[in-house]
Design brief:
The structure holds two protein chains of two kinds.
Chain A: E1 4-7, E2 10-13, E3 18-25, E4 31-37, E5 44-50, E6 53-57, E7 64-70, E8 73-79, E9 87-94, E10 103-104, E11 108-112
Parallel strand pairs in A: 2-11
Antiparallel strand pairs in A: 1-3, 3-8, 4-5, 4-9, 5-6, 7-8, 9-10, 9-11
Chain B: E1 5-6, E2 9-13, E3 18-23, E4 31-37, E5 43-50, E6 55-58, E7 61-66, E8 71-76, E9 85-95, E10 98-103, E11 107-112
Parallel strand pairs in B: 2-11
Antiparallel strand pairs in B: 1-3, 3-8, 4-5, 4-9, 6-7, 7-8, 9-10, 9-11
The chains are: A mainly beta, B mainly beta.
């Protein structure tokens, strides 16, 4: 089973709203990732968690706040977003070992009005 | 600019072979990956190759790696309309928690019936 699940599939929010994106994997992977993907562009890395600790933050604005409650779950809390934050948000996970292949979820399509 | 480069677009007829090319810059990359993305979906891992290999075959997919020229290609035999998608190559570089991916810009493959 190489499945990463993400909820919700679509999200529309206003600039004053607070919402959360969720990601889950049951592959026993120890690393989890958040990416942002704009239309016709490759994914851009936002955050990396390794063994439930934040190991990489790619200078992401504080209106995006990641959380890793346990080794299977990854959240992305959203607050006071801007319209330019509208994008596909992808979660991925990997074993964290030498052959560290990342498996992606289906993504959440976020629209900020 | 991107460190990993791909041509933007490829059009083939159903039943023909498709060859998608990629060039990368980091000679220390350990693994190189090919991902497929259909419209509105996440990234699906197609195949990967370890940097000490020249070729890897997996059913209709053949990956060729030329380390000297830092050139990677993906050949899809007997291309089908279901193969229409964007294909991303990615190189893995060790960083902090594990292998971080640097993606190419993606090649849109259109398969005509």
């Amino acid at each position: 089973d190489t499945e990463v699940t993400q909820t919700p599939k679509h999200l529309v929010m206003g600039m004053t709203n607070k919402k959360s994106l969720k990601c889950e994997q049951h592959m026993g992977h120890r690393a989890m990732y958040w990416y942002k993907q704009k239309a016709k562009k490759p994914p851009e890395l936002m955050f990396v968690y390794s063994y439930e600790k934040l190991s990489i933050n790619e200078s992401v604005p504080s209106r995006f706040s990641p959380e890793c409650p346990n080794s299977s779950l990854l959240n992305l809390h959203l607050h006071a977003l801007q319209p330019e934050d509208s994008a596909l948000y992808l979660c991925a996970s990997s074993s964290g070992g030498a052959a560290d292949t990342q498996y992606f979820g289906p993504g959440t399509r976020l629209t900020v009005l | 600019g991107e460190d990993v480069e791909q041509s933007l677009f490829l059009s083939v007829r159903e039943g023909d072979s498709s060859v998608i090319n990629c060039t990368y810059t980091d000679s220390s990359s350990t693994y190189l990956y090919w991902y497929k993305q259909e419209p509105g979906a996440g990234l699906q891992l197609l195949t990967y190759i370890f940097s000490n290999m020249d070729m890897k075959q997996d059913q209709r997919l053949t990956v060729l790696l030329n380390k000297k020229d830092k050139h990677l290609s993906l050949r899809i035999a007997d291309t089908q309309t279901g193969d229409s998608a964007i294909y991303f190559c990615a190189e893995a570089r060790w960083r902090n928690a594990g292998n971080m991916l640097t993606f190419g810009g993606g090649t849109r493959l259109m398969v005509k019936p």
